[in-house]
Amino acid sequence: MTALPASPAAEADYVRLWAAGLPPPLRLEDGRALQVIFPGIPGGGAGPDFSGAILDAAGDLLSGDIEIHIRASGWRAHGHDTDPAYAAVALHVVSENDASAPFTLHRSGRLIPVLVLPPLPPAFPPPFTPPCALEAARGRLSGAALERLGIRRLRMKAARAAPQVVADGPGQALYSLLLETLGGPSNRAPFATLARSIPLGVLLEALDGSTAPRAFAAAAHLKGATAALVVRRAGLRPMASPARRLEAAGAIIARLWPRASLPRWPAGLTPEGAVSLGKVSGIGAALARELLVNAVFPVALAAGRWPEDRVLASYIALPSPGTYGKLRSLEGWLGSGGTRPFPGAARLQGALLLHADYCTRGRCGRCPLSD
Fold this sequence. Notes:
By secondary structure, the protein is an alpha+beta fold. Helices cover 44% and strands 13% of the residues. A hairpin with a 2-residue loop joins β4 and β5. Strands 1, 2, 3, 4, 5, 6, 7 and 8 form an eight-stranded mixed sheet that branches. The chain has three domains: 10-116, no CATH class; 129-168 and 285-371, no CATH class; 170-263, no CATH class.
């Protein structure tokens, strides 16, 4: 089946097509005929595109969620293969099966059928193609420019952390930014308030006086303090719930500040060793990279705890945690020939700065990727 070339709006177009109902005949990649009994309820942002779908695959009744991608490889690229929020996906809908497999695998062991949809008719008028996409199609590489922008964004984060480092010390600054990052977009502000209401020194003193396991005791103290805060709980993935994120915070605090630690920069924490945050209970690889980029590296730079060249080397070598939704269009424009324009965290951060300073400010065609 001929696949539709990737374009910024294509995934949204296929989501609308699925919601409107697909005309028969439909056939899964494993050869079974497919009938859509109920397409499901559209998702609310995070998680699968549709939930509660009911399908008939050659007599086999399938029920669950629907996830839609341009390419089948998007499943792994976006981290869905290890995300519990996608464990109930019953059908993976794509416009191109670049994985060449009849099923998509989730870490739970489930084999998810794949449906390749026919190409959509061309849009009229044709979609806008920015200069950076034309440059990428001509073979111009964007990696070096994105890395430079990513380094600039890291230094901006360090500059924002500097006043707190001066006022409260690098330990409290690191603790605060770790909690803010764990709060995520939905709970960043209340988690920042939590870090101020229970300062690191107060928390460590309470933990040293407790007989409970350190990670458990830290999470319990933080959870108790959230009772006085307005925290969003509805509509979040299970792993992103405040309770789970505070449990992860407790594990991180126990790792970085063991018994009898002072509320200072963690002893023995190095740029190379910081990646071990991904091995802390409740912290996946993607979230660990977010913590490094948004908390550990900025505070280390602002406080001068590590030489800048070592921080930048670790930053540039750090893999991307996964593309943000606001960058989907830019990813499509720069991903000429199926390449991944943001394979590393530094390039992803550079793309965020590019998006903020150029793409969304009417400066298209004047950015470092277009001139």
